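Weekly sync, protein design subgroup
Attendees: M.S., D.O., the rotation student, P.L. (late)

Item 1: inverse folding check
M.S. brought a backbone from last month's batch and wanted to see whether the design step gives back something sensible before we order anything. D.O. pointed out we never logged the input encoding, so this time it goes straight into the notes. Structure tokens as presented (137 positions):
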């Protein structure tokens, strides 16, 4: 199927027409089978239209996105296995580690933008993770 933008030469009404192919459109126009839905005139002309070009499914971008997604999944598994999840206590725990009040270890959890700025002001390194850290179990 092909969709053409059509317009009426008599009343300038614009509408779409669906045809099997260009030859089918030409045949129906010659036979007077295409008419304006507004004024019923058969003086119809084709308008400008953008081509409908399908994207290749094996494009480089698609492969790169799959690679990135795979790397994020691997990173998430490593962090969940080797880091301590501290949830919304992340800011407090990061400060305790920095000032020697808790044992030094890798942690992850949640922090608001304000809390993150506060940690950075105290020269505590933080890194946003490219996945949700919320634990559901």
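Designed sequence read out in the meeting:
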């Amino acid at each position: 199927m092909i969709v053409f933008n059509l317009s009426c030469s008599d009343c300038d009404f614009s509408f779409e027409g669906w045809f099997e192919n260009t030859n089918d459109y030409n045949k129906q126009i010659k036979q007077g089978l295409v008419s304006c839905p507004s004024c019923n005139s058969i003086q119809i002309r084709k308008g400008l239209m953008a081509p409908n070009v399908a994207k290749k499914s094996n494009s480089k971008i698609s492969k790169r996105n799959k690679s990135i997604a795979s790397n994020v999944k691997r990173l998430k598994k490593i962090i969940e296995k080797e880091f301590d999840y501290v949830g919304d206590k992340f800011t407090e725990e990061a400060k305790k580690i920095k000032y020697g009040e808790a044992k030094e270890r890798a942690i992850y959890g949640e922090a608001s933008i304000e809390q993150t700025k506060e940690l950075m002001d105290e020269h505590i390194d933080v890194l946003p993770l490219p996945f949700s850290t919320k634990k559901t179990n």
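Discussion: The longest strand covers residues 2-8. Strands lie at 2-8, 14-19, 44-46, 84-87, 107-109.
Action: P.L. to compare against the previous round before Friday.
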